[in-house]
Amino acid sequence: MDRVRKLKLALWALLGLAASVAVTRFLFGLGASTNLTDANPWGVWVGFDVMGGVALASGGFIVTATVYIFKLERFHSVIRPAVLTAFLGYVAVAVGLLFDLGLPWNIWHMMVYWNPHSPLFEVGWCVMLYLTILLLEFFPVPAEEFPRLASIRSTLIKFRLPLVIIGIGLSTLHQSSLGSLFLIMPYRLHPLWYSPILPVMFLISAIGLGLSMVILESHFTAYFYRRSPEVNLLASFASACRWVLLIYLAVRFSDLIVRGQTSQLLIGNWRTGLFWFEILVMAVIPIGLFSSVRLRSSQAGQWTAAAFAVCGIVLNRIDVGGVAHPRPNGGFYLPSWTELSISVGIVSAAVLAFLFMVEHFKVWEQRPADPHANPLWLPEFHPVDTTWLGIPGIAARTTYSLAFIVATALGFGLLNVRAVESRGVDPTPVHRARGGEILWIDGNLDGFGVAFKHVEHQKREGGNESCVKCHHMNLPRDKGSACARCHRDMYLPSDAFQHDWHASPSGARIACYQCHAEGEARTAATAAACDKCHKDLVPIGALIVVKNYRAVAYTEAMHRMCIDCHVKKAREKNKPEMTRCDWCHKDRRDVIDSRELLLRKAGLMGENVVLPTREARK
Amino acid sequence: MKAAILTDTTKCINCHECVAACKKQNHLTLDLPRRWDLDDGLSAKNWTSVVEGPEHTFVRKQCRHCLEPACVSACPVGALQRTKLGAVVYESSKCMGCRYCMMACPYGIPRYEWQAAVPYVRKCIFCYDRIAAGGQPACTEACPTKATIFGDRDLLLAEAHDRIDKSPDKYMNKVWGEHDAGGTSVLCISNADLSFVFGGAAVGAKPLPATTEVAMGAVPFAFTGVVACMAAVSWVIERRMKNGKDESNG
Prior knowledge:
The structure holds two protein chains of two kinds.
Chain A: H1 3-28, H2 30-33, H3 44-56, H4 59-69, H5 79-100, H6 109-112, H7 119-138, H8 140-143, H9 150-158, H10 160-180, H11 198-225, H12 231-259, H13 270-291, H14 293-296, H15 299-323, H16 337-360, H17 392-414, H18 417-421, E1 438-441, E2 450-453, H19 454-461, H20 467-470, E3 494-495, H21 499-503, H22 512-515, E4 550-551, H23 554-573, H24 594-602, H25 614-617
Antiparallel strand pairs in A: 1-2, 3-4
Helix pairs in contact in A: 1-16, 1-17, 3-5, 3-15, 3-16, 4-5, 4-10, 4-11, 5-7, 5-16, 7-10, 10-11, 11-12, 11-15, 12-13, 13-15
Chain B: E1 3-8, H1 17-25, E2 49-52, E3 58-61, H2 70-74, E4 80-82, E5 88-90, H3 100-104, E6 111-112, E7 121-122, H4 128-132, H5 138-142, E8 148-152, H6 153-166, E9 186-189, H7 195-198, H8 209-249
Parallel strand pairs in B: 1-9
Antiparallel strand pairs in B: 1-8, 2-3, 4-5, 6-7
């Protein structure tokens, strides 16, 4: 397989992985698919997909300005790939935004409900308009292939100069406004990054990034299509990029000096380290490499330096977007693999679209071709790989589909249950209450328990006959089932029905047809009702009505049972209701010494836990 | 009238009646401990909480309803609005879920329904319908010790300064919310430093919307400037090239 094939295969696989995550994202929400919290509401989807994406796509306006405004015609050969990259980049930003927005179907609200004070409003409008302009700028290229579109094409070419000029204006605005977004958070963004001239710095670094991106993209496609990159042209870009980055460096450090934040530069914490790393990768190394005439005229020198600049400036956007924010609770945001796979998947899709466009339309003077993609070729009877997949063109598509599907399946396998169930909370197992006369009810073992006078309640309610009042739905031949048997989780409802036990030969030994009628799907919906057999399961006189066999959460069950009854009784006797938590939860952490609490939490004391008696605790 | 709440932490007994009243008023259901919670007790289903600070100081945490709210200025679709009475309210039907308000709030108040497939931003709305009808919020009504009271902002400010003046050894000489971020509708007086809950030390007196105003005000000028500049450069260069050609031809 040649290079393009391998690349496409990898991209399709990454896209497949992202597809599985995308399903989770839209079915179960952001909590299930990201590591975002109330402390870090913005993560890598804003930092990379949106802010990084917009900056990465800045090559379009820089190259169009060079050629159409400054009339440097020798750069004409890079204009089409640059505009195509910009267009696909902005489409990728829009797609990324659809993932990040909580209510993506409301994205059009920006057009209807206006708030001109908001920098985000301005960014949104500029991106929408600029995307349209990029489409109009690039449209003549694919239109070449369709004679019917010739008139539209010539009109668009006629209006090219005004389109380019407006495009440059819009780009200047939103590239800088992405920096303005953070002006409103002086208390959130770290002083090494926060600056009143953040918009200016964003604009300068975006220009540097655009130039580097043109260089990198040319070398990237040159490698995969085995074409020769425009080394001499790119050397001029490299030289320009060096000056832009130098200006950036000067602006950034003078800003730090003017704001009096230079003392921050030498503090030995990880944020200072991050700052220096960012400066090194985004500016110092590329400037160094691009300054040498020999290096910036060589292929290796060009792409190494450009790669450094691209990574560094994107890192800067990610830092400003979320990493360089002090955490109020000391927590730390690291993107989950699901977030990263969506970001990578969107980039993969953009690259695949780019490859499709360069193969099918005249983006370069010479159109590169996938040598095996011609469907008219006869099947090659290669003994190992291609034969069984059909003729080469079809074989490639089959392999890509296979990679996509396998990766999607893998993704679904990797998604954990918690993500899919969208719980955002670990199941908290309930532990049995213990004690004789007094039950210590503290299901989640956090030390805030209730000392429940069990015997006293039993006596008051009428002796042995009264069990049914509280212990509803007892298990067969059981007078007082433990609450935790069915209410197994502190916070989440659990299933009280044990299917396996019913079907097991060592359990109830019930055959399938005894519950699920013949010829019907064997699901919970078609199963026979429980009370067909368990006629005495819900005792007569039970306080709580059982609607279905889904046991509510432990806390809810306990609260409902105690509070409802007490409130009712209190009303009858005209006494104050129990409205405050510490009415029951009197026994607090300070009663049980912390060592014991720790041991109990670790479960070390297990069954032999000895609880302080009510008197001893007083 | 500018509606406001004054909380006197020396009177708070940590009974959580305000929290319970808020839950009841706004139909908020049982809250689960979640991965994305902060440790201040606020969440999408808890719009107010009582935070315990040093020296057994109990402070209510809730939306401050700034006089110049950063969230309102940040929201790109105007889903957050400051009403005439001073309540900062949220219109969920406009929201598109960008969460810029959460980033912009200097106090970190708005919370998100991360667990939901259709999530909204949630925060205290000052019981807007109640105060618009001439009543008071559920929390102040429920407070048994009158530690948190509702009234006109100017009167409450006078009351706060009065209390501080009468017993200067009991209170710290500061009304939290008087100037913070341009002033807030939720005021607080205390015997202890409350910066742990309000970010008082960090949040200066400057209203936050002013920070982006300069940049946003420059937008039309920047656009016209850049466009005019580019058009001019293009025209000049084209003319020169033409002249150059003519000369060489002639």
